[in-house]
Design a protein that fits this description.
single chain, mainly beta, 5-stranded antiparallel β-sheet, 37% strand, globular, signal, Lipoprotein
Length: 527
């Protein structure tokens, strides 16, 4: 039973990874044939063909930009001379995603831009795209999208792919491919093994606001594509960190992600060209954005949006973990040599003055590694405003914890042992006033006294002693549904608030007035 809840958390992470990560796979098909074509010079523009939407029928966008599923009115500037492959297929909605790739895309029409190293026989390209897409329909989850073409010239083509309205698979997943295998250049060369773009169509989950009785439901977002983001970054519950996996597969591979910040007040998404972290690990020069995230010093020439909102931090050494204090005025850090695995310095950094307090060897113990793949995890710090809990391990190969607490008033570091059984994890979340703690696999405690052995990944309602969590149950038809349950820690009593919600939802938090819950779900419906 060692690390039971941590294992459950790992399963949750794995399930999320299964949904949206990826291993790049490619399935060989017979090359088609084609003919025709007329050369045009790059920069001339072009007309829509084969199912054609005239250029003037959609709104104009800057080069490289287009609304999801809409035609562009200008070609995209591109360095064709630097191309190493015969073709690059790029998703217009997110230009950082390009072939060869298997990745998730949104429901409905998507546009792609194809860049060719040589001038192409246009009709052979269109025929190859159609035949390659049709070949994949022998696999039950593959679909053949409707393809429309708009040439800017013989080396740049925009394709609009519209999948069918309904998936063939019971799971609701659709996939299609864009591949120009068999297309010909104007010089007569046949493209034998060009890189392809495999698009997995996934309905995006949305953020909802639901009243405690479930009678009022309001969809707060209209995300066009699936991404991972089910926690608020800040106490005001305004900002959400969104993570989009670049690759898709049914595996737990750690593929790169794309990062963005969603502002619930402005209803806007800001995309970042760098990795965003809620607990920082990396070089000693980095940025701390008090909205609740960090990023490393960007490379020269990389423009990071809203950088003026972040504080530049510099510390002597490699940062093995950094978190904000509860009031976001300070950083708590574990610092040492990059290869160091134990006994780091504890550094307190004031974000206003830049002053640092350093306690040599203050972070005692060995760094924690992932139970999934042994990747070194950042040292994390949990601040309740009075004390900071620091979790490490007793040995390099040990699962036994070595925990300490740092006291803000006295500056003392003292050992701390959680009140949970020795085979349980000491991780917890607590009520706003710190009176009650919910240990992930140890139950709810009032200090060192157990109140209940309840287990469930939920949230404390702000300003209350009520813990709210989802509970699975059978629906009598071979499937499952979720009920939302509230546990009153003062009364030691549970109450079912909402019944029969669809599985797969995430409970993000509760409103400050205690009247609403924030959920993230793929298929929640309006009442």
């Amino acid at each position: 039973m060692i690390r039971l809840m941590r294992s459950q958390a790992a399963v949750c992470v794995l399930l999320g990874a299964l949904l949206v990560t990826g291993c790049n796979t490619s399935i060989g098909m017979q090359p088609p044939a084609g003919d025709g074509g007329q050369e045009a010079e790059p920069g001339q523009g072009g007309k829509a063909t084969a199912g054609e939407t005239a250029a003037g029928e959609s709104p104009a966008h800057s080069p490289g930009e287009s609304a999801v599923g809409e035609w562009r009115t200008q070609e995209v500037p591109y360095d064709y001379g630097a191309m190493k492959d015969d073709v690059v297929i790029r998703l217009d909605e997110e230009p950082r995603l390009e072939s060869p790739i298997r990745t998730a895309v949104g429901v409905g029409a998507q546009t792609y831009t194809l860049f060719f190293r040589e001038a192409m026989d246009r009709s052979s390209v269109e025929k190859a795209l159609k035949e390659q897409a049709d070949d994949e329909t022998s696999l039950y989850w593959y679909v053949e999208p409707q393809l429309e073409f708009r040439w800017f010239h013989d080396r740049q083509l925009q394709v609009r792919a519209t999948p069918p309205g309904k998936a063939k698979s019971e799971e609701g997943v659709m996939e299609y491919r864009l591949n120009v295998k068999g297309a010909r250049t104007l010089s007569g060369k046949v493209l034998a093994e060009p890189p392809e773009f495999l698009a997995v169509v996934l309905p995006p989950s949305q953020i909802w606001r639901v009243s405690l009785d479930g009678k009022q439901r309001e969809q707060l977002t209209r995300f066009s594509v699936e991404n991972w983001g089910d926690i608020f970054l800040d106490p005001d519950q305004r900002y959400v960190l969104l993570k989009r996996f670049t690759e898709y597969c049914e595996c737990d591979a750690r593929h790169p992600r794309l990062y963005a910040i969603y502002d619930t007040e402005q209803e806007s998404i800001t995309h970042y060209p760098v990795e965003l972290m809620t607990t920082y690990r990396g070089e000693g020069r980095f940025y701390a954005d008090r909205r609740g995230f960090f990023f490393s010093e960007p490379e020269e020439g990389v423009t990071v949006p809203d950088r003026e909102k972040a504080v530049r931090v510099e510390v002597n050494g490699f940062v093995h973990g950094a978190d904000f204090s509860r009031d976001r005025s300070k950083l708590i850090m574990a610092v040492g040599a990059e290869e160091q695995k134990e006994n780091y310095d504890l550094v307190i950094h004031d974000l206003e003055s830049g002053e640092q307090k350093r306690i040599a060897g203050g972070v005692k113990g060995y760094v924690i590694t992932s139970d999934l793949d042994n990747v070194v995890l950042p040292v994390s710090f949990q601040d309740n405003g009075q004390q900071v809990t620091i979790r490490m391990r007793k040995g390099a190969d040990s699962m036994e914890e070595l925990n300490h607490r740092y006291d803000w008033k006295t500056g003392a570091l003292t050992p701390w042992t959680a009140p949970v059984p020795s085979d349980a994890w000491s991780g917890y979340i607590e009520s706003d006033d710190g009176l009650y703690q919910m240990y992930w696999n140890g139950g709810i405690y009032k200090g060192s006294t157990r109140v209940t052995d309840l287990s469930g990944h939920g949230v404390w309602l702000p300003g209350s002693h009520t813990y709210v969590y989802p509970e699975y149950r059978g629906n009598g038809q071979g499937g499952s549904v979720i009920d939302i349950v509230a546990f009153d820690a003062d009364q030691n009593k549970s109450e079912i608030l909402i019944t029969d919600l669809p599985v797969g939802l995430s409970l993000m938090g509760g409103s400050k007035d205690g009247k609403w819950l924030y959920l993230r779900s793929h298929n929640l419906k309006q009442q």
